[in-house]
From TrEMBL, chains A, B, C:
Role noted for this protein: Catalyzes the phosphorylation of the hydroxyl group of 4-methyl-5-beta-hydroxyethylthiazole (THZ).
Official protein name in the record: Hydroxyethylthiazole kinase
Taxonomic source organism: Brachybacterium epidermidis
Protein family: Belongs to the Thz kinase family.
One Pfam family here: HK
Positions contributing to ATP binding: 125, 171
KW Magnesium (keyword) present: yes
Taxon lineage: Bacteria, Bacillati, Actinomycetota, Actinomycetes, Micrococcales
E.C. no: 2.7.1.50
Gene3D superfamilies in the cross-refs: 3.40.1190.20
Keywords linked to the UniProt accession: ATP-binding, Kinase, Magnesium, Metal-binding, Nucleotide-binding, Thiamine biosynthesis, Transferase
GO molecular function annotation: hydroxyethylthiazole kinase activity
Chemical reaction(s) catalysed: 5-(2-hydroxyethyl)-4-methylthiazole + ATP = 4-methyl-5-(2-phosphooxyethyl)-thiazole + ADP + H(+)
Keyword Metal-binding (UniProt): yes
EC category name: transferase
Length: 268, 268, 268
């Protein structure tokens, strides 16, 4: 892959492509934030479908989904069955995102994450502790929170991307998105994202929506991160706390304009 | 059944009956929108109880529930067991609503929906694609979204109602509610309902609350659809996007007045 | 235990201790209100972790959690396995809260609640019907709602506390929190709490966060109840209904000040 440089114009094109093509995103995701994740997908213009049981997940991925999210936040046996039923190597498999929530010391999700890693996810999205743990060089964070800074995961991200031939997105105060040949940093966002549950989960879903329509995993993942973070900045501006922030985030994702992205995007 | 014509006055009476009698509604429903569905039931004055495991669902339906909702959005094995444990033909079975989410090509829910159809649900509520697929004449929609207009499901709705001796409600820009002898159309609502998750699921639950207190399935289902759609119109009026819409919908359902219904109801 | 008297100053100290120490609270809780419970924990300054599957729950309780919530609202087989996998008697077990939702006539949760009771929860939190049913002297409420007043559960609460050597919190218009030697009443709160789903579940989680940092179960449970109820009063003040109330509750919990507690606390 030749190195990619991302600018605000490209981010806007990806946002508009999601709104126009309304990709159908199948989510096999944790039961804590399922409703919020579905609402965020709708707000960016995608169509969510939470089809995650073993008898239906493979058919839906093969015949209907434009993108798939696999989030390991609550790996109950029935959902693990649904995740394993998908044929990730099939020609019909759409782009997919692995979100290895709290991977590291917890055995069920850690083993499943390694198994999924061998199927080369289009994008892996996590916080710094999760990315380092998945790459095999750390023990994970504190619950779902990272104990490392984004840049401490840069090498792990590039290593993972080289193994999957996809992109790896490290979320944090500055987001870092890497593939084997390029690294993009996005310095947008707001600390309020850490005060609501599902902030990361929803970004994983948005990433699946963007890679479903984008020319490359890196462009899709980085554009998703930029749109999501900029909407968060707008939402935080008129939020009185985490309750109103989550509500306004949905409104901001729905109404985000090209001008918002041009004026706020901080990409390097 | 003699043909029924519904007017705003009847809708108001049903709304007031729900608020006064506070029916206890047992929900066996998908895990995406469970909390939203419970909050909508509370907002209309009903009492939600999400009792859906196999060891408890039959007892609760028999001894406690005034109405039951069965929604097939996420048919995990444990919940399917809970759904199948209920004795739908028992004398003690209260009115119940089947919401056949995304029925059609997905095998687990499609088989279960057909099985439940043989137990004659009091009301079936779905979008046009779901109703047509359940009646055996279509393949279902795109994920949870309909690819047909409401009127394209009118014949399927009447056919299903004739088989179940109940009512069938087709949700869409204009809602169509039919039983074997009557058809009611409700032209209230707002496109914002399609921009949040659970808009249809919650209407299924509201329908269960209304048929628990109404003189007939048709009157209950049509009154539920009218109240819900009119509250949505009010909520959309001061919403800045899907986040605030969902929040205001709960407030509007709670505070909806007889005057709101008299002035807005568009029933034919 | 010597009798404890609680004042507003102590409540403030506990609130500040939670914010400073950010206890990591493992929740094995019902699937209706999981996201709301996680958001409430974040709003009080704690860190939620919904680790509830059998292969992970014991490890997390032993190695990571500062407090544990066990809520029996939707006792599916897989979650029951996760709940039973924890070694409640281990030296490494942190303080934990049992929330016996709708215990009484429903057999799965009632049997599991009795089993957990034998492991001496640090705090038991429920409504009056649940506490009386758990103590063996009643049949439970109507669904998740109490059919008894708080004071009708006072004897049952003290009996349970004597058996567990912990505290028992009875939620209602006036909260009653008892251990074997003391009883505290908190007359704060707002009727709006009964119009949203998860109002009780979230208080169970907040209680786990407070007992994780407090000098005694009684002080932790009573301080949690006071902070939560006072935040509810503030939220209700500018709510237009249950939708805005739930949103403002999160904002109010996040921004609650010592002055708010000093001016509003009604503790006896």
């Amino acid at each position: 892959m030749p190195p990619v440089s991302l600018d605000a114009r490209t981010v806007i094109e990806q946002m508009e492509a999601v709104r126009e093509r309304q990709p159908l995103i199948q989510c096999l995701t944790n039961h804590v934030t399922t409703g919020f994740v579905a609402n965020v997908l709708l707000a960016v213009g995608a169509a969510p479908a939470m089809v995650d049981s073993a008898g239906e997940s493979e058919i839906f991925a093969r015949e209907a989904a434009d993108g798939v999210l696999v989030n390991l936040g609550t790996p109950h046996p029935a959902q693990c069955d649904g995740i394993r039923a998908i044929d990730y190597g099939a020609d019909t498999m759409p782009p997919w995102v692995l979100d290895p929530v709290a991977v590291g010391s917890l055995p069920v999700r850690t083993a499943l994450a390694q198994e999924l890693l061998s199927h080369s996810p289009t994008v892996i999205r996590g916080n710094a502790s999760e990315i380092v743990a998945l790459a095999g060089s750390g023990q994970g964070g504190r619950g779902v929170d990272s104990t490392l800074g984004t840049d401490e995961a840069a090498t792990a991200a590039r290593d993972l991307a080289a193994r999957t031939h996809g992109a790896v997105a490290v979320s944090g105060p500055v987001d870092l998105i890497a593939d084997a040949s390029s690294t993009v940093r996005i310095a947008n966002g707001d600390p309020m994202f850490t005060e609501i549950t599902g902030g990361g989960c929803a970004l994983g879903a948005v990433t699946a929506a963007f890679v479903a329509v984008s020319p490359s995993p890196l462009v899709g993942a980085a554009s998703a991160a930029a749109v999501y973070a900029i909407a968060g900045e707008k939402a935080a501006g008129d939020a009185a706390g985490p309750g109103t922030f989550a509500v306004h985030l949905l409104d901001a994702l729905r109404s985000l304009s090209a001008a918002d992205i041009m004026s706020r995007a901080d990409i390097s």
